[in-house]
Amino acid sequence: MEYTVQKLASLAGISTRTLRYYDEIGILKPARINSSGYRIYGLKEVDRLQQILFFRELGVSLENIKSIITDPTFDSTRALRDHREQLLGKREQLDLLIANVEKTIAMTEGRIIMSDHEKFEGFKNKMVEDNEEKYGKEIREKYGSEAVDKSNAKVLNMTQEQFDEVTELEKKVKQTLTEAYKTGDPAGEMAQNAADLHKQWLTYYWSEYSKEAHAGLAQMYVDDERFKAYYDKEQPGTAEFLRDAIHIYTGIKK
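Given the sequence above, the corresponding structure tokens read:
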């Protein structure tokens, strides 16, 4: 079966503008252009659009999606299996959060008593799963599975107090970094304070700290577009500024 832009957009639940943009950037070209100048899509294009939307749902950037699906070694069946596993992981986390909410409701109604551990167990599990989904592959390749597993275990064993502390510390890192960036000096007192706060934040997750690993992570913030986008969201250039500040703080340049 063949589809026009409008019909395919309606089928997929996206806008016609999105389909036209996918054509413009070369991620999804129509099968042909008919005599009236309309884009026409066939089964192959429908399947590719499905893959693109799966990847988008998992938070993959269009640039990375294009690299993946245009790779000659791309295996669509394997990709679908991977999608399935990741979606099952998401469902598991949602089930945990739903169970946590239901327990909390029961507690407020006086039907059960929840331990402090139970109150935020679902959130910790979701944090670990989200990090694994977004960055697991790269982090494991860089630091090794043993180190990542230890880090995950440390998060899951956090007390409520520790969880609150690290959440507050993360906010403090961002606030200090925002102000430090305005100075334009990664070697300045405020920037070095941001680097030190970043180190303190890391120690809540890492089983052991090293200057080399800290400097390597800072470089990853610049090299990996997902990290870069996170830090550059409000102020473009912040990821590089933080990298430079941490390299100066650790005395190590990667």
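Residues 160-250 form a domain with the Globin-like fold (CATH 1.10.490.50). Try to locate this feature in the token string yourself.
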